[in-house]
Amino acid sequence: MTKNETSKFIALILRHKPETIGITLDEHGWANVEELVAGIAKQQAFDRDMLEEIVRTDSKMRYSFNEDHTLIRANQGHSIPVDVELEEKTPPDILWHGTGEKYVSSINAQGLIPKSRLYVHLSADYDTAVKVGSRHGKPVVYTVATGDMQKAGYQFYQSVNGVWLTKRVPAEFLKKIEQTK
Fold first, then answer.
1. Which key words are in the record (predicted)?
2. Which stretches of the chain drop beneath a pLDDT of 70?
3. Please, what CATH class does the domain formed by 3-74 belong to?
4. What pLDDT was estimated at residue 59?
5. DSSP structural state of residue 88
6. How far apart are CA 104 and CA 122, in angstroms?
7. Whose CB has fewer CB within 10 Å in the chain, the N or C terminal residue?
8. What is the CATH code of the structural domain delimited by 95-177?
């Protein structure tokens, strides 16, 4: 596997299916590093140095080690119930959500829901939202009136890699924007 494919495999393990390599996550999403390395090494050439390199160079900052690097977890994006110990934060008044064109009618009707994940993911800027949306086909970007949502009682969290998270975004807080780029 390429480094990128291995990183995606680690994301699958730490976000969705730790049983793929026979490991478990604790209630906060932490996996034992040695068990993770050993489990992946049974399927492909892999060692701790490769893991350290993937975590250090991941442009999306998907993973975190604990202080002594004995535990690792995905920062967000889980479909399995874990508490990654997010601290509630006050978001900027506007955040962004990028999606694919094929999801527009559903979003317009029901807003943003986490589907198989624990949270809806929001971006701090337009360009990031476009990149996220591009993963799902022709990108569509919405602004999210997060300031208004917070005043209405919705909670927001920010992952260590800067991604904003909330449980759902009702349609009345969304505005589809026309792409200028």
1. NAD, Transferase
2. 179-181
3. mainly alpha
4. 86
5. B
6. 16
7. C
8. 3.20.170.30
